[in-house]
Amino acid sequence: MSVNVRIPTILRTYTGGKAEVAAEGSTLAEVIADLEKNHTGIAARVLDDQGKLRRFVNVYVNDDDVRFEQGLETATPDGAGVSIIPAVAGG
Amino acid sequence: MAAQTVASTTNAETSADSAPSTNSADLGPAAALSCRECGHRVPLGPVFACEECFGPLEIAYDFSAYDTEELRKRIEAGPANIWRYAPLLPVPADVATKPNINPGWTKLVKADNLARELGVDPGKLFVKDDSGNPTHSFKDRVVAQALEAARVFGFTTLSCSSTGNLAGAVGAAAARAGFRSCVFIPHDLEQGKVVMAAVYGGELVGIEGNYDDVNRFCSELIGDPAGEGWGFVNVNLRPYYAEGSKTLAYEICEQLGWQLPDQLVVPIASGSQLTKIDKGLQELIKLGLVEDKPYKIFGAQAEGCSPVSVAYKAGHDVVRPQKPNTIAKSLAIGNPADGPYVLDIARRTGGAVEDVNDEQVVDAIKLLARTEGIFAETAGGVTVGVAKKLIENGLLDPSLTTVVLNTGDGLKTLDAVAGTGLTATIRPSLDSFREAGLG
């Protein structure tokens, strides 16, 4: 499964400045693992020491917040858009 | 007069989110941005998330140059708006001379009639009525602050994601300062809020989705070339914007005669306001402007959007997002970014987080209007309703000095009290007047 991942500004140092990169995986966990393979260091920014999504990271698969789905086990269908967004805005 | 500290001139970060770069940031006592999660520090700039852990960045200050009594005199001699507290805010020393909406110094109303109805001791209950701000909500405080940061960082477009009140505040501030404004709101907001945002002449865009969808869109726009040069007051200017809420704490204490209240009831949307009120109180204590004593902060939510209240009652320290469904739309943030900090503060201070349903919100709006002549928007109904519930539950002590926040004007949410109307319709005659039982 190939998906398109939107990278927030603060992680673009890991993607050579690219705002979007392709990644492989049938779940979000697999997509993040694949991102790490090609952009070393990025997983540690998105996941905490226990391997869970950091609490100030929001991830959307297409338009769905993965916290309303299956978290890291959320399916990432072929061609899906994955957005990683700092959860700091609002109010 | 106390001198501004020297730690205020730092380089804006070159990796700032889609921002014009600037070589120096004259933001008064602000010294750096510090991650609330991991403590990582970066220079002042239009950035909002920690590059190490995604945690929220907030302003770190250097107040070391201040003498307490000189600072108190300087504040008391200042203008009757938030800039009287400029020495404690991330703004240039000459902020009061720049075109801005100059909010604040709103009334702290001693609410003895409401106290009587709620069973609170006379003289102990106050309503901090922020409907008196230029665009009739507390959002003017945070926007005025963000506007100054936008000016320093060289932005020319002011933007935001909004549940309505913020949209109006941004539109007004941009108009006054000569900025372009383009703001984003959920497409189904109350008509009053749409009009009150659109009238200032900026661009107002409805997004098909709820507030969290709007927020997500704005966060993505910031990282896109289309958003280049835009200052989103509650996203890339958020560390500065959020500090505006500290002025509520400063004003309450100064209006109480430089004393801390014992208890505060504060609404929760993102949770930012509550956390910054706590920060403001702590700063006043550390600066010696108030005597240190315990205070309790209570958070108030609407039942239809109560992720923080649910987490509090369940004993959790993380907040599970909800899909909002409440008439209190200005508080309808289902994924509140500062929720975990609200939980920390409520527990640390011995407060609580409570919620009320929409019917209770409407009843509380009417109660406040009937007893004190204050017409609150739904968020004010939430705080008054929660205060009532907390008293009934024995969590809020009726013998202590308590401040309940009203953060917006009821004219913005007329739909909530739409059933309120004529007592009677009569012919223009005394007989008809008497027949209606009015005489």
SSE layout and pairing:
The complex is a heterodimer of chains A (91) and B (439).
Chain A: E1 2-6, E2 20-24, H1 28-38, H2 42-46, E3 57-61, E4 64-65, E5 81-86
Parallel strand pairs in A: 1-5
Antiparallel strand pairs in A: 1-2, 3-4, 3-5
Chain B: E1 30-35, E2 41-42, E3 57-61, H1 68-76, E4 107-110, H2 112-118, E5 125-129, H3 139-153, E6 157-161, H4 165-177, E7 180-186, H5 191-198, E8 203-207, H6 211-222, E9 230-232, H7 238-243, H8 246-255, E10 263-267, H9 272-287, E11 296-302, H10 307-314, H11 339-349, E12 353-356, H12 358-372, H13 378-392, E13 402-406, H14 430-435
Parallel strand pairs in B: 5-13, 6-7, 6-9, 7-8, 10-11, 10-13, 11-12
Antiparallel strand pairs in B: 1-2, 1-3, 4-5
Helix pairs in contact in B: 2-12, 3-4, 4-5, 8-9, 9-11, 10-11, 12-13
| Distance from first to last alpha carbon of chain B | 62 Å
**Named CATH architecture of the domain at 107-135 and 245-417 in chain B:** 3-Layer(aba) Sandwich
Measured by DSSP, the beta-strand proportion of chain A falls in 25-35%
Radius of gyration of chain B in whole Å, from Cα?
A: 22 Å
